[in-house]
C-alpha cells in the first residue's frame, strides 16, 4: 500500500502527469467556486496571495532576498499580488508595490489601506529605476491572469519589457533579481505560452487552482501550485490530477527541484550576539530560557532532539526522540527498553542530545550519563498519554524485524477491542523513561561569516563541590 501511495505522489510530481486547464475550463471553475460552492472573490484572493507568499518563502529566504517589488495589474491577479505583499511583510521581507491602475472597488482599496497601514511603500511607474536589477531581489509579476486578452497596454507593456530585459543583461552582474509570476507569466498566451519566444522568463511560476496549459512551456527551476481550495466535486468533474499538499502548507512543488551543488549550499546566519553576561549560572535554567523562546517562535516540535548512543564497542547510532521533561536532575524521554537505543544504553550508559532550532539559528548539545527513571514516574507518564499511544507502545516491539505493516494493524485492532471497556491499560514492563544527567552543555548561536557563538558549561569539582564552569569555544 505504501509503495502504491509513493508511486502516485511521484507521478504527480512529474509535470507530464499533472492536469492542465484551458482558459475556458479555468473560467468555468472560477464561476463554480464563486457560484454554487459559495466562495467569495476576496476569499479566493486571500488564499491565492498567501500561496504566492509561501511559495516564495519556500525557495528564497528573506535573509538573502529581502527586497521584493510586487507589480500589480488592474484585475484579480493584481489583487493576488497585493495580498502576497502583505503576507511577505509579515514573513520578514521588505515589500514594495507598483500598482499603476488602481480601481475604486472596495475590495482593492481595502487591500491598499492594509498595505499602507504596514508602511509598505507604493512606487509610481515613473519612480521605478529603468534597470530593476540593483534595487530589488525579487520581482513579483502579478499583472495579468488567465482572463487577459489582447496585447498589454501602457504602462504594463513597458513594465513587461523591463522584466524581459533582466534576462538579456550580460553575465558580469553578481546576481540578477528573480522573477516570480502569478498563475500566468504576463504577456503569455494562456494556452500557447510565450508564442514569440521573447516574453518574460520567470524563475518561479505559482499556478493557482491548477496549472494552465501555458505552464507546460514554463522552463524555470521552480513551479509551485497554490490555493488549496479545490473541492472533490471540481476535481472529479474536470478529472484533475493534482499533487497532494504536504502537511499544512499552502503550496506544493510541481516537478522535481533543480539539481544543486551541495558544496555551495550555505546560510549566512543573522542573529543577535550571544555574550557571557546573558547566561544563567545553571545550564538547565539557560536551556529553559532558550526552549521558551523556541515555543514562543512557534517552531515545529521544539522538544525534538537527536539522541546518540553507542554500544560496548563504541559503535554509535542516532535517532530523533521527544523531550518529555527537564529538571535539575536532567533531560527525560520515554521509549522501549528493548529497542536498539535501550540495549546500547544498558551496555554503555553515556549518551548525547542535540536540539536544533532552525528558525532561531540555535542549537544545544548535551552530554552525560543515562539512567532509567523510577518505575512510578514511567507509570504516571504512560497513563497520561492518549489511549492509542498506550496501545501502540504495547504493539511495537521496537527495532525488531516484522513481516509487514499489517501485523501491527492487526495486533493494534485486537488490543483496541480488548481495552474497549475503558479500563486502565497496563504499562508494559519493557517500556519507560530515561534521564540524561548533563556533564557538558553547549549553547550555539549562528552568526555571520561562520563566527558563531559557542558557550559551553562543563561540570567540574572544585573544593569538593560540583560547579559549572563556562567557557567560550572557537566556532
TrEMBL record:
<dbReference type="InterPro" id="IPR036652">
    <property type="entry name" value="YjeF_N_dom_sf"/>
</dbReference>
<dbReference type="GO" id="GO:0010181">
    <property type="term" value="F:FMN binding"/>
</dbReference>
<feature type="binding site">
    <location>
        <position position="141"/>
    </location>
    <ligand>
        <name>K(+)</name>
    </ligand>
</feature>
<keyword id="KW-0664">Pyridoxine biosynthesis</keyword>
<dbReference type="Pfam" id="PF01243">
    <property type="entry name" value="PNPOx_N"/>
</dbReference>
<comment type="similarity">
    <text>Belongs to the NnrE/AIBP family.</text>
</comment>
<dbReference type="GO" id="GO:0052856">
    <property type="term" value="F:NAD(P)HX epimerase activity"/>
</dbReference>
<feature type="binding site">
    <location>
        <position position="77"/>
    </location>
    <ligand>
        <name>K(+)</name>
    </ligand>
</feature>
<dbReference type="InterPro" id="IPR011576">
    <property type="entry name" value="Pyridox_Oxase_N"/>
</dbReference>
<dbReference type="GO" id="GO:0046872">
    <property type="term" value="F:metal ion binding"/>
</dbReference>
<feature type="binding site">
    <location>
        <begin position="145"/>
        <end position="151"/>
    </location>
    <ligand>
        <name>(6S)-NADPHX</name>
    </ligand>
</feature>
<dbReference type="InterPro" id="IPR000659">
    <property type="entry name" value="Pyridox_Oxase"/>
</dbReference>
<comment type="subunit">
    <text>Homodimer.</text>
</comment>
<keyword id="KW-0288">FMN</keyword>
<feature type="binding site">
    <location>
        <position position="183"/>
    </location>
    <ligand>
        <name>(6S)-NADPHX</name>
    </ligand>
</feature>
<feature type="binding site">
    <location>
        <position position="186"/>
    </location>
    <ligand>
        <name>K(+)</name>
    </ligand>
</feature>
<feature type="binding site">
    <location>
        <begin position="76"/>
        <end position="80"/>
    </location>
    <ligand>
        <name>(6S)-NADPHX</name>
    </ligand>
</feature>
<protein>
    <recommendedName>
        <fullName>NAD(P)H-hydrate epimerase</fullName>
        <ecNumber>5.1.99.6</ecNumber>
    </recommendedName>
</protein>
<keyword id="KW-0413">Isomerase</keyword>
<dbReference type="InterPro" id="IPR004443">
    <property type="entry name" value="YjeF_N_dom"/>
</dbReference>
<keyword id="KW-0547">Nucleotide-binding</keyword>
<comment type="function">
    <text>Catalyzes the epimerization of the S- and R-forms of NAD(P)HX, a damaged form of NAD(P)H that is a result of enzymatic or heat-dependent hydration. This is a prerequisite for the S-specific NAD(P)H-hydrate dehydratase to allow the repair of both epimers of NAD(P)HX.</text>
</comment>
<comment type="pathway">
    <text>Cofactor metabolism; pyridoxal 5'-phosphate salvage; pyridoxal 5'-phosphate from pyridoxine 5'-phosphate: step 1/1.</text>
</comment>
<dbReference type="InterPro" id="IPR012349">
    <property type="entry name" value="Split_barrel_FMN-bd"/>
</dbReference>
<dbReference type="InterPro" id="IPR019740">
    <property type="entry name" value="Pyridox_Oxase_CS"/>
</dbReference>
<keyword id="KW-0479">Metal-binding</keyword>
<keyword id="KW-0285">Flavoprotein</keyword>
<feature type="domain" description="YjeF N-terminal">
    <location>
        <begin position="26"/>
        <end position="242"/>
    </location>
</feature>
<dbReference type="Pfam" id="PF03853">
    <property type="entry name" value="YjeF_N"/>
</dbReference>
<dbReference type="GO" id="GO:0004733">
    <property type="term" value="F:pyridoxamine phosphate oxidase activity"/>
</dbReference>
<comment type="pathway">
    <text>Cofactor metabolism; pyridoxal 5'-phosphate salvage; pyridoxal 5'-phosphate from pyridoxamine 5'-phosphate: step 1/1.</text>
</comment>
<keyword id="KW-0560">Oxidoreductase</keyword>
<keyword id="KW-0630">Potassium</keyword>
<dbReference type="GO" id="GO:0008615">
    <property type="term" value="P:pyridoxine biosynthetic process"/>
</dbReference>
<keyword id="KW-0520">NAD</keyword>
<dbReference type="InterPro" id="IPR019576">
    <property type="entry name" value="Pyridoxamine_oxidase_dimer_C"/>
</dbReference>
<dbReference type="Pfam" id="PF10590">
    <property type="entry name" value="PNP_phzG_C"/>
</dbReference>
Amino acid at each position: 500500500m505504501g509503495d502504491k501511495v509513493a508511486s502516485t505522489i511521484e507521478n504527480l510530481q512529474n509535470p507530464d502527469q499533472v492536469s492542465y486547464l484551458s482558459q475556458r475550463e479555468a473560467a468555468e471553475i472560477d464561476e463554480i467556486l464563486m457560484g454554487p460552492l459559495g466562495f467569495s472573490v476576496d476569499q479566493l484572493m486571500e488564499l491565492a496571495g498567501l500561496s504566492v507568499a509561501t511559495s516564495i518563502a519556500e525557495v528564497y529566504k528573506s535573509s538573502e532576498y529581502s527586497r521584493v517589488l510586487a507589480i500589480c495589474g488592474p484585475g484579480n491577479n493584481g489583487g493576488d499580488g497585493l495580498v502576497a505583499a502583505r503576507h511577505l511583510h509579515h514573513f520578514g521581507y521588505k515589500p514594495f508595490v507598483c500598482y499603476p491602475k488602481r480601481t475604486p472597488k472596495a475590495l482593492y482599496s481595502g487591500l491598499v489601506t492594509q498595505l499602507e497601514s504596514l508602511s509598505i511603500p507604493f512606487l509610481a511607474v515613473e519612480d521605478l529605476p529603468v534597470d530593476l536589477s540593483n534595487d530589488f531581489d525579487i520581482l513579483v509579476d502579478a499583472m495579468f491572469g488567465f482572463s487577459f486578452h489582447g496585447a498589454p497596454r501602457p504602462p504594463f507593456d513597458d513594465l513587461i519589457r523591463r522584466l524581459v530585459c533582466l534576462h538579456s543583461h550580460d553575465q558580469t552582474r553578481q546576481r540578477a533579481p528573480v522573477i516570480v509570476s502569478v498563475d500566468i507569466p504576463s504577456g503569455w498566451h494562456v494556452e500557447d505560452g510565450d508564442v514569440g519566444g521573447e516574453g518574460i522568463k520567470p524563475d518561479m511560476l505559482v499556478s493557482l487552482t491548477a496549472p494552465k496549459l501555458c505552464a507546460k512551456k514554463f522552463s524555470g527551476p521552480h513551479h509551485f501550485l497554490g490555493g488549496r481550495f479545490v473541492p472533490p466535486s471540481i476535481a472529479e468533474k474536470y478529472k484533475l490530477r493534482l499533487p497532494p499538499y504536504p502537511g499544512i502548507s499552502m503550496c506544493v512543488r510541481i516537478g522535481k527541484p533543480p539539481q544543486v551543488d551541495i558544496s555551495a549550499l550555505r546560510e549566512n546566519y543573522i542573529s543577535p550576539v550571544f555574550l557571557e553576561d546573558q547566561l544563567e549560572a545553571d545550564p538547565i535554567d539557560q536551556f529553559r530560557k532558550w526552549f521558551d523562546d523556541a515555543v514562543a517562535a512557534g517552531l515545529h516540535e521544539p522538544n525534538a532532539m537527536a539522541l546518540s548512543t553507542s554500544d560496548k564497542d563504541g559503535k554509535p547510532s542516532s535517532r530523533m526522540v521527544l523531550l518529555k521533561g527537564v529538571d535539575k536532575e536532567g533531560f527525560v524521554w520515554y521509549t522501549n527498553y528493548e529497542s536498539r537505543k535501550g540495549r546500547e544504553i544498558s551496555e554503555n550508559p553515556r549518551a548525547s542530545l542535540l536540539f536544533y532550532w532552525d528558525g532561531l539559528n540555535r542549537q544545544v548539545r548535551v552530554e552525560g550519563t543515562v539512567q532509567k527513571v523510577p518505575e512510578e514516574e514511567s507509570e504516571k507518564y504512560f497513563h497520561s498519554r492518549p489511549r492509542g499511544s498506550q496501545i501502540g507502545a504495547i504493539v511495537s516491539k521496537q527495532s525488531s524485524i516484522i513481516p509487514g505493516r499489517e501485523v501491527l494493524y492487526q495486533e493494534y485492532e485486537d488490543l483496541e477491542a480488548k481495552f474497549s471497556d475503558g479500563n486502565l491499560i497496563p504499562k508494559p514492563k519493557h517500556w519507560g523513561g530515561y534521564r540524561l544527567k548533563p556533564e557538558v552543555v553547549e549553547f550555539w548561536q549562528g552568526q555571520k561569516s561562520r563566527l558563531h557563538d559557542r558557550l559551553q558549561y562543563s561540570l567540574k569539582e572544585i573544593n569538593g563541590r560540583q560547579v559549572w564552569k563556562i567557557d567560550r569555544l572557537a566556532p
